[in-house]
Amino acid sequence: MLIANSSLVSVSYLLSRVTALARFLPDLAGIRLFARESFAAFDDALDPLIGGLIMAAWTLGLLAVSAVVFTRRDA
Question: Is Membrane among this UniProt entry's keywords (predicted)?
């Protein structure tokens, strides 16, 4: 499934066709950080600064969740 998701069409891109909130998912938020506007297949992409901040927020949020899970586990 991961190979099909990364090589064919990402789930985030498919969700972007259904809802506008999908552009805040990490891979679509940072698309302009790595691809020029002419190469981006996603038309409603965020600006590079905003996309980078959203990707950083996703990273911090997932690190916080992993820290909570790590501290609550038995040794």
Answer: yes
